[in-house]
Amino acid sequence: MTDDLLARHRAVLPSWMPLYYAEPIELVAGSGRRVTDARGRSYLDFFGGVLTNMIGYDIPEIREAVERQLRTGIVHSSTLYLIRQQVELAEKVARLSGIPDARVFFTNSGTEANEAALLASTNHRRSHQILAVRNSYHGRSYAAMGATGNRSWSASALNPLQVAWLHSGERLRGLLSRLDPADQVDAAVEDLREVLATQTAGDVACLIAEPIQGVGGFVHGPDGLFAAWKKELDAHGILLISDEVQTGWGRTGEHFWGYQAHGVTPDLLTFAKGIGNGFALAGVVGRAEIMESVPAISFSTFGGNPVSTAAGNAVLDYLLDHDLQANAARTGAILADGLRAAVGGLDCVAEVRGKGLMLGVEFVHPGGVEPDATLTARVFEACRAGGLLVGKGGLYGNVLRMGPPLTLTEDEAREGLAILVDAIRASAAAPEAAA
């Protein structure tokens, strides 16, 4: 029973591993964009295992690719031996990355991918000084956590890096939020120059940044910001790492990678989540001269193993064959336009934002921009009651996050939209909301 499983969970797992919902659920089956819990309740999934089940559930092409590899009897060999599936996937990723003379290193998670990118860039520049962005999230390991600019996710004050922080693209709060988008880019560059002049000792290794901040609540700066940053970075020889763990593979609809909205090519990019569609698969791709800067043997025992890369090849082929980037743009527009029209005018909704199938709704107390995490929690629970799974995020826990599988149909988008609108309106009108 679910209740018994919850008690067992609490008895053996750490309390800092959160569970969603007042009554946590166990997912026992999935098909397409729908999952079923242990009580037999079906849900339309708009969070996809935190944007990870990118193609959906029980996809024949992916299942068959994994089963073919399993039938060989080789689940693991280590990268000390040639792995055909790994080489084939690396070739595809290198070609699609847009980075010239690219090399790819596979890991198990976005955290490890960002660690690998930091390893390469700090070795290349012979410096442990880096730049990062406020409100960011790059993972839970030592260095990745040190580059995370979100207090709720910074589980330790210890840090092997010397980090200087840039202002984010936050449009509701902070100094840059007071400016028009064009002026915001100029101000961000001025901020970068001042940080370099006052907080660093020269020879900074890199800037690591998300095109759209995931855990941060799907906040993003104006298009062109990365290009403006990179012009200044190039003047100092500083590398740009684009953290594409959540924005990659066409999720934003308008581009295959989030960085492409900025008219610039990063020196390295990291990827994870959706490429494995639930199998542990991630990595970093960068220019050969940077990737070859690692001065000693380094490899990942499980990164890029035969099973996960078999899945990754099937995922990427399916993604391209079915033009899921275009589908993300199409279905994402149904959701974004529908939300703005139906609830965008409510005084508790500060912003409906994002791109493609990466959307957030930020809730505030009426009359200002004070975050309302309590209302967000009510909407979150109401969505579940209505048969829709969504996520939460933002620095203050007041953002509803949606990252459905890129295979979402137009009918499913409209179905989910109706549940969202009802949940928001009902929660905003509840007596507790007015108290």
TrEMBL record:
Subunit structure: Homotetramer.
Protein name (database record): alanine--glyoxylate transaminase
GO molecular function ontology, one term from the record: transaminase activity
Enzyme class: transferase
Domain of life from the UniProt record: Bacteria
Organism of provenance: Micromonospora rubida
Keywords annotated in UniProt: Aminotransferase, Pyridoxal phosphate, Transferase
Annotated InterPro entries: Aminotrans_3 (IPR005814), PyrdxlP-dep_Trfase (IPR015424), PyrdxlP-dep_Trfase_major (IPR015421), PyrdxlP-dep_Trfase_small (IPR015422)
Enzyme Commission number(s) of this protein: 2.6.1.44
Cofactor(s) named in the record: pyridoxal 5'-phosphate
Entries under Gene3D superfamilies matching the protein: Aspartate Aminotransferase, domain 1, Type I PLP-dependent aspartate aminotransferase-like (Major domain)
A Pfam family per the record: Aminotran_3
Family in the record: Belongs to the class-III pyridoxal-phosphate-dependent aminotransferase family.
